[in-house]
Design a protein that fits this description.
The protein contains 9 helices and 8 strands. With 234 residues, it is an alpha/beta fold. The longest helix is centred in the N-terminal third of the chain and has 17 residues. The protein is globular and about 45 Å long. The structure holds D-xylitol-5-phosphate and zinc ion.
């Protein structure tokens, strides 16, 4: 390949990543449930782009979080899209209910769905964005034949179920691989990363090709959550 062409590719890639919007989706799992309204107000005023809502059923993951009434309540105050992450078995049963509760994005686990293509189409037929989530052990290659249908892929960088866990380093290479698959095919699919994200690994994840980062503890346990959201975008 002529040098000038290689340089152009490098420039185009760098430029594209730099102009890509950096989306931050704070996870309300780490919010103060006794003062949820205060935390929503803080997020409304912050540079956060989405609200990440973790729905856990105690079966797919070993924890139970909150359900539809809480999502409805958050939706009454939230001024930005609700990014609903379903960690539940047989997720299709609840797509419509979460859409009605206010979800703009619904992601469900590849590991929890038998007919992933059907599930994706079902979410899209509700007029909202659809995404598939991969656990740390699931390779990105399983998405090869469905990637073009997805609005986003959520890569878990911890084992799902709890906030405040340690980031799994292997996630960087998964992001890079997935970014390659998306770009080579000219898809618009977004890459979101969830688990153990902080101000130290965020720039590296964006550089690897991620578009959106979920952050729970890093935001809500910091002294200045609004400032932390700004720092996550640097
Ligand atoms: C974990 C959830 C995450 C969690 C992230 O199962 O999917 O969204 O709230 O929390 P942190 O950022 O603290 O790892
Ligand atoms: Zn999540």
């Amino acid at each position: 390949m002529p040098l000038v062409f290689s340089l152009f590719i490098i420039f185009a890639k760098t430029f594209k990543y730099n102009v890509m919007q950096k989306i931050i989706s704070p996870s309300l799992l780490s919010a103060d449930f006794l003062h949820l309204a205060d935390d929503i107000t803080m997020l409304n005023e912050s540079q956060a782009d989405w609200y990440h809502l973790d729905i856990m059923d105690g079966v797919f993951v070993p924890n139970i979080s909150y359900g539809i009434p809480v999502v409805q309540a958050i939706n009454k105050m939230a001024t930005k899209p609700l990014d609903v992450h379903l960690m539940i078995v047989d997720p299709d049963r609840y797509f419509e209910a979460f859409k009605e509760a206010g979800a703009s994005i619904i992601t469900f686990h590849y590991e929890a769905s038998t007919h992933v293509h059907r599930s994706v189409q079902k979410i899209k037929s509700l007029g909202i964005k659809a995404g598939v989530v991969l656990n740390p052990h699931t390779p990105v290659s399983v998405l090869e034949d469905i990637l073009g249908d997805l609005d986003l892929v959520l890569l878990m960088s911890v084992n799902p179920g709890f906030g405040g866990q340690k980031f799994i380093e292997r996630t960087y290479s998964k992001v890079e691989k997935l970014r390659d698959m998306i770009d080579k095919n000219g898809y618009n699919t977004l890459i979101e990363v969830d688990g153990g994200v902080n101000t130290e690994n965020a720039p590296k994840l964006f550089a690897a090709g991620a578009n959106a980062l979920v952050a729970g503890n890093a935001v809500f346990k910091s002294e200045d959550p609004k400032k932390t959201i700004e720092l996550l975008k640097l």
